[in-house]
Amino acid sequence: MTANKPPQPTAEAIVLSDIQAHYHDPNKAILNIDRLVIYQGEQVALIGSSGSGKTTLLRLINGYVRPTTGTLHVLGNAMNVRTARRRDIRRRVGFVFQNFNLVERATVFENVLWGRLGYIHPLTSLLGGFRHYDKQMAMEAIEEVDLLSQAGQRCDTLSGGQQQRVAIARVLAQEAEVILADEPVSSLDPALADDVLNLLVDVSKRRSATLVMSLHQPDLAQFYASRIIGLRDGMIVLDERSAGVNERAIQATYERKIELITEGI
Asked: How far apart, in whole angstroms, are the C-alpha atoms of residue 237 and residue 64?
């Protein structure tokens, strides 16, 4: 493990104002955020119990979930029904999934190359017509995550840690300026979890990309993130620099879960 230095905030990368989001019940908001600003180059960890809104917040930023009310700006663009579909905006935001989201029967190279789809014409992509530059970018991303010797290997033959590295390489090939990671290490053992989180933080710093990741383990959040945001019932109950977060603040983030367990005893 290597200690992280807090980045110096510059421009606003993500801005949420008066956001509410609902799924099926119009009377129950799954997100209720008055104001949230995440700056370019920050490494942010989202913590909170299951159902607190961590994944929904990531999906909202990525355009998978639409807010019922409020405004969302990502990299200076107001995100709405029209802009969320624009390829030039979507390719600037990369997503690392908990379950890797790879085509397992395809090779490492193919999976990473598909990160370049946002840069070529849709018809060209259907015909597999990637440019030499796109292939070069894919190979450089594979090298950056230290999988060059596995480039021609099928993904279903790789370990879990290696598959997550492929997913990270795909985001790097995409040249994402915002990297969202939803529980990226929940299926990995502690040693591999440290390896993957080190990689995510390192590549985000090298590329000056904004990293927002949801984590179940508060100790990992404190070590790897420069800022921690705690969610409970869809609302922000904690927002501090990692160095200033104590055990009491973390316990308060999970307070409702603790109350429910106590009631059942």
From this structure: 24
C-alpha to C-alpha distances, 33 to 15, 84, 186, nearest whole angstrom: 11, 20, 26
Q: Give kind and range of the element (H or E) at residue 144.
A: helix 132-144
pTM as predicted: 0.89
Residue 112 lies in a domain: yes
Q: What domain range is 116 assigned to?
A: 100-175
Running along the chain, 265 residues long, what does each successive block of 10 average in pLDDT?
A: 46 97 88 97 96 96 93 93 78 95 97 93 70 96 98 97 98 98 94 96 97 96 97 96 92 68 38
Give the count of domains, the chain: 1
The answer to whether 6 and 47 have CB atoms below 8 angstroms apart is: no
Q: Name the residue with tokens 């983030």.
A: 253
Burial of 171 (0-12, 13-18, 19+ CB in 10 A): buried
Please give the biggest Cα pair distance in the chain. Answer: 63
